[in-house]
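Why GMP synthase [glutamine-hydrolyzing]? Reviewers of the renewal asked for a concrete example.
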Amino acid sequence: MTLQHTDSILIVDFGSQVTQLIARRVREAGVYSEIAPFTTAAEAFARMKPKGVILSGSPASVLEQGSPRVPQEIFDSGLPVLGICYGQQVMMHQLGGEVVLGDSGEFGRAFIEIQDSCVLFDGLWHARESHQVWMSHGDKVVRLAPGFRPVATSPGSPYAVIANDERRYYAMQFHPEVVHTPDGARLLANFVRHVCGLSGDWTMAEFRAAKIAEIRQQVGDGKVICGLSGGVDSAVAAVLIHEAIGDQLTCVFVDHGLMRAGEAEQVVTLFREHYHIPLVHVNAEALFLGGLAGVTDPEAKRKFIGKTFIDVFEAEAKKIGGADFLAQGTLYPDVIESVSFTGGPSVTIKSHHNVGGLPARMNMQLVEPLRELFKDEVRALGRELGLPDVFVGRHPFPGPGLAIRIPGEVTKERCDILRKADAIYLEEIRNAGLYDTIWQAFAVLTPVRSVGVMGDGRTYDSVLALRAVTSIDGMTAEAFEFPAGFLPRVSTRIVNEVRGVNRVTYDYTSKPPGTIEWE
Ligand SMILES: Nc1ncnc2c1ncn2[C@@H]1O[C@H](COP(=O)(O)OP(=O)(O)OP(=O)(O)O)[C@@H](O)[C@H]1O
Ligand SMILES: O=c1[nH]c(=O)c2[nH+]cn([C@@H]3O[C@H](COP(=O)(O)O)[C@@H](O)[C@H]3O)c2[nH]1
Ligand SMILES: NC(=O)CC[C@H](N)C(=O)O
Ligand SMILES: [Mg+2]
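Here is what the prediction returned.
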């Protein structure tokens, strides 16, 4: 049985890339929320009995035939509604205002001018002030629906924020959920607390209890296999599931030969030391490296790895007398980058092995308790579950491992070169006390060869790239600025100690436009 949250917010998803960020901002304000796609929002609304509704952005335009609409029940209910971007446009369109195709949009940073007081601005913004927000729209509202008043304006949006206090309807053209709207989290908190009247006392402890109840309901007395990688997500998933169903759970660690130096042994030892959860260690290097021979396309690598993981899990399930469920530590960023919004122009960026890389037909049902969370929230849940820091603080490591850090063909020889270089880089990062400041750091073995001179001889060897980023949730990231002298030291060590590499470069690209991994 799902725990019934008396105090909840329904977020209607119209297909924005950042809808999940609305959910997490609401969680940060201490309020439980659920996201429902607009197609099933009416059912979710009836089931949840929320205290307020938030309407997301969308790649669609209200002016297009057949574009998404808000279920009428929501407007009829008398509950507070907050519209964001498309959410604002669709509110105006349905409630009697007017939206037109703008001659130019507003994309990125913008400044709004506050015109009037508004409950959303409580303790935050005052009339005649100017504040930074983040916009991403082409259409604009040109006439307000009856009962609304403008409370803020921007050069491209006369109605940047609007309010109808009597009906408790509010809307904004910009995105308060993204970090580039610095006060956005507080605007959302004001909506859920001051407009919807919620107390903000929901915690990670409740999330844990709710998920445990959900897992028990889904699994019944079935058997579960959990893919355990040694990473944060699967460790948290395994411990949570174990708390829910005890010995119905078996963990499977797949060593695909694409792990970092010494990692496989470390993962298994560490997990066995801390937990009494059965753990199977599968050596599948030959299977993975054999299948990757000759494969160079990044998506082909990802799809092969995703499918082979499942083959291995299914084979292991057989050995323990069958399993009905496969548990994975899938997080929200894995999902959003892998799927495209049905009916809209949002695109697949890359097929994360555990989502878009899964084969079409699977014999086991998925159990993914962390699917709506972001990395830093999983870490908070891990702490809540009492996981030791060695698990919680680990840098993320992608399931496809070194395969997506070797552009071009993956061979054992190239994996060995990369492992050595990567180990030196991480050792230096740890020695410099920078491991916990950096969100993720790794080396990439490029297919480029360059000419060098060593010991008066000519070399013609591989170019290695180093990457380190800072991030909160992995959705956006910036290159890490190392202190002076660090990169030259690492570069010298790698070229001296790793045969096959004669040049080292540093990747300064942020995300976007880059992604964190190279493939
Ligand atoms: N080598 C592996 N063996 C078994 N399962 C794996 C392996 N690598 C990845 N998985 C499964 O795929 C999921 C997604 O991988 P991902 O790397 O995102 O998470 P993680 O490894 O648990 O955490 P982190 O992001 O910190 O590395 C994992 O949670 C795990 O269930
Ligand atoms: O389990 C995973 N399976 C995958 O297929 C995968 N691809 C990327 N990543 C990790 O996700 C985060 C965001 O990475 P990108 O910016 O490269 O998309 C970073 O932390 C990446 O390491 C993956 N994790
Ligand atoms: N981010 C959004 O919600 C955009 C809404 C609509 N597609 C526009 O361009 O105006
Ligand atoms: Mg991992």
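The longest strand covers residues 98-114. This is the kind of structural detail the renewal will allow us to pursue systematically.
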